[in-house]
Amino acid sequence: MSGQGHQRFGHLDRQLDIKGRFSLPVNWRPPSGENLYFLKVKVEGLPCLRVLSQAAFDRKLRDIEGTPDATSAQRDRARGILYGNSTEASVSEQGKLTIPKALAEGQGMTLPGAVHVIGRGELFEIYTPENGAAVEAAEEKARGDDPVLASMLGF
Questions:
Q1: Fewer Cβ atoms within 10 A, N terminus or C terminus of the chain?
Q2: Helix (H) or strand (E) holding 40
Q3: Would you call 125 exposed, middle or buried from its count of C-beta atoms within 10 A (0-12, 13-18, 19+)?
Q4: pLDDT value at position 42?
């Protein structure tokens, strides 16, 4: 996986302060001067903030452009939806990422309050603690119910 940028692993429990800030581990932070992008999504039907690196965001745009059976109107609409559901962010020199209050509250988070963060390789996801636990349970169930998935993972 080298050459793919920073990889985020594992699960973290963090506390948002009154301004929506929380500390990222050093190995989760983007290179200096590189932005991150919050993307409002649903995972397992639950609200989530997906945090994309610059490379992942750019790749998403390239994927839109490269969709062979899409019309130019569909590509324009997809780009608009992507940009409309994204918020640019940066990590402070102290390693803190700030979720804007309206964005956090729109995803069910409270300021101050707890969040659950799941590493997904080049990106990571931020949930309320309850939604994070529900997503983890759904993934565990999928592993138990899907022998192909279980075989691919090997655990």
A1: C
A2: strand 36-43
A3: buried
A4: 94
120/132 Cα distance (integer angstroms): 13
- What are the residue ranges of helices labelled H in 49-146? 54-65, 72-84, 101-106, 129-145
Strand partners, 64: none
Q: Under a CB-based contact definition with an 8 Å cutoff, are residues 125 and 50 in contact? A: yes
Q: From first to last of its 155 residues, what are the pLDDT tens digits of the chain?
A: 334 557 788 899 999 999 999 999 998 998 888 899 999 999 999 999 999 998 899 999 999 999 999 999 999 999 999 999 999 998 999 999 999 999 999 999 999 999 999 999 889 999 999 999 999 999 989 988 898 988 888 87
Q: What sign has the CA pseudo-torsion 89, 92, 96, 98?
A: negative
Give the SS3 label for residue 70.
coil
Closest CA to 26 of 95, 91, 84: 95
The CATH-assigned architecture of domain 11-153 is 3-Layer(aba) Sandwich (3.40)
Burial 93-102 (b: 16+ CB within 10 A, else e): eeebbbbeee
